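Late entry, evening session. Most of the bench is empty. Finally got around to the prediction I had been postponing all week. Sequence below, unchanged from the version circulated by S.P.
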Amino acid sequence: EEYWLKNNIINLVMLFIDGPTIPPVKGEQGLLDDVFGFVKTSKRLSHTNTETGTESLASSENAQLILSLKLIVNRQLIHAGLVFKHLSRELGCVEIGLAEKGPNDTKELQESTIKSPTMLKSFVYQLTEHYRIAPDNIKVVAIVISGMSISVQIMTCSKGSASLMSTSLLYRLPESTDEIARLLPSVLKLVYNRSQIIKNIADHLRRISSSVDVDYFENVYFPPCFVAAFNEEYVS
């Protein structure tokens, strides 16, 4: 943990080596790798694996849960920028957008209010199916990155498939050397706390995997997740 913290502070400070501001990054993958690399390396804190730019296993296995009114929305729903896995099972994801203003506003809104909640519900569903457990003790997490801003979403299920979605405040990475002391600690704390949530659920899955249970398990009903979309005929 201490190594992760020190190493990422150094990496973030090195972004300003050529000047007082962070140089422009190319593409969403560049934003994740060059600026938000500490999100990716937080897998060491949670003892999980990561996959980048792959189709979500949960969404592809349980496609019946994701019923979209638009094919393009449905196609975007099954892909995440980054996925955190315990073995082959997904416990969290990262959604990335280049900016929080202009034409990217709609993309950010879709990812934070439509895409990530649907993916998280699908993660919960595939965990209950694979481990034959009730979803009561399951927490799954999404990180939403939009430009230099970052927030965390946590989904919990307390009564069957009924889920509660909690969203953190929006934090910003420093864009100049003057902002490092003020902004950087809060962002690193947010990502660290998120990694501990994933670590806890991964540890929980390891514990139940090592126990024998031959009792009958009644599947929890998960209703389909419907995604609203505009009809092209009514868009000028």
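Two things to note before I forget:
The first helix runs from residue 2 to 14.
The chain is about 40% helix and 20% strand.
Will write this up properly tomorrow.
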